[in-house]
Design goal:
Helices cover about 50% and strands about 10% of the residues. By secondary structure, it is mainly α.
């Protein structure tokens, strides 16, 4: 029995496995776990990174329990094969008068060692999407690098151009941008044209860098 398997089975007061009537260990109740599909759903919903990381921990835990279940299944199948092979019928005589030995069942393959997966390894394929959700920091708010935010900035730029054309730029600011963030929609207050341009420039550079990194990967 693999040492890692002891972490998943019922033990007595002496830390020895509690066996069932077939002499096999019993699995502990499986805790709540998550799947990679849950991670993908959270990312698509632009959920906070803290929530994604927590779910990732539960996905890693789930993979450990999947291994434990596969090892338990192996022990059950091994027991059944051993019982079958130990109780084979007597050889029988075929039509040619030859004794034919009954065929033994092959022993199942033992699962490999438990391969623990870290949260960072698990989230590596999704890191670009997570970085997109985290976005850039501005006045204590993380503004996601979404197309909706880009369109919002473009709309503000067009409105600012109109305000300049009509000579009412001073009435334009401060302006509020309803921005996608990892915590949902939040208001980003832009006080003047310089702040607006700096924020927009930082946003565009970060979004450009994000898509360039995706292209390289």
């Amino acid at each position: 029995m693999k040492n890692n398997f002891l972490n998943f089975i019922v033990l007595d007061d002496d830390q020895a496995p509690v066996l069932n009537e077939q002499g096999l260990p019993q699995l502990l109740p499986r805790p709540d776990t998550k799947t990679t599909q849950d991670i993908e759903r959270l990312i698509a919903l632009n959920k906070p990174v803290e929530v994604i990381n927590k779910f990732a921990e539960l996905v890693c835990l789930g993979k450990q329990w999947d291994w434990a279940q596969s090892y338990q299944n192996y022990l059950v199948e091994k027991y059944e094969v051993e019982q079958y092979n130990a109780n084979l019928p007597e050889p029988i005589e075929n039509d040619e008068g030859e004794l034919v030995e009954p065929t033994k069942m092959e022993m199942p393959a033992e699962p490999g060692d438990l391969q623990e997966v870290s949260v960072s390894d698990l989230l590596a394929p999704y890191q670009s999407k997570i970085n997109k959700a985290i976005g850039i920091g501005f006045k204590g708010i993380n503004v996601s690098l979404t197309e909706a935010n880009q369109n919002g900035l473009s709309a503000l730029k067009s409105a600012l151009d109109l305000a300049i054309d009509f000579g009412v730029k001073d009435q334009f600011f401060p302006i509020n941008l309803n921005a996608d963030t990892p915590k949902g929609t939040q208001i980003v207050k832009l006080l003047d044209e310089d702040e607006f341009k700096q924020f927009g420039f930082n946003f565009i550079l970060a979004r450009k860098s994000l898509f360039e990194s995706k292209a390289e990967s």
